[in-house]
Amino acid sequence: MIYEQFNLSAQNPMIGSHTVYGQPLLPGLAYIDMLYQVFRKHGYRYDRLELRHLSIYKPLIAGEGRSVRLAVRCENEAEGLWKIRVEGRNQHHGVLEPEIILYATAEMHSIAPVSYDETLDLAAFKPSAVRTVGFEEIYAEFRSRELVHSGFMKAEGRVYETSSATVMELGLGPQALPGSEQFMFHPVLVDGAVWVL
User: Fold this and answer.
1) Could you read off the pLDDT of 172-188 as tens digits, one per residue?
2) What is the mean pLDDT of the segment spanning 57-82?
3) For the residues of 83-146, what is the DSSP string, one character each?
4) Contact 72, 32 (CB under 8 A)
5) Secondary structure class of 180 (helix, strand, coil)
6) What pTM, to 2 d.p., does this model score?
7) Which of 82, 130, 142, 154 could, after both became Cys, cross-link 74 (CB 3.0–4.6 A)?
8) Are 153 and 15 in contact (CB under 8 A)?
């Protein structure tokens, strides 16, 4: 079994820079990097693992004076298969509440490494775009629906659409660049890529 615990609060820039209806919460896709980090800490190579069936049951909210003590439990169900449960308990001004909340479940599978050799010539693709949208325009649309990305959680770039494809030029904003090497699957990039699609 693999087991890890974390304390998460709005001081974490992923949470503090990502609000829905005014509540700071962990972007659901941040679980991808979190789970791969847990397995890497226990000696597993990311290129030999595949995360499947990530299901989020409840948003992880950490408001004023609140934090979450999160536990990641990975049970080895069969050869090369782990069942994952992400559970937590709320803390209010340092007092741990008794209720255990199920936040997410997933499976991690051992796989053979896969190599991708294809490349995309973005400079050649741009002239054929029939529509180009900047990320600031995309974030403005989200803000109108009370999903606010600020500071750390704002990606930079543009989306280029043709009649047959959509291509993104995507990068970290200045607040996410320091310390970015600690991530395996940076939540800002994963979040930005998925929302556009």
Assistant:
1) 999 999 999 999 999 99
2) 93
3) EEEEEEEEEETTEEPS--EEEEEEEEEE-----------HHHHGGG-SEEEEHHHHHHHHHHTT
4) no
5) helix
6) 0.91
7) 82
8) no
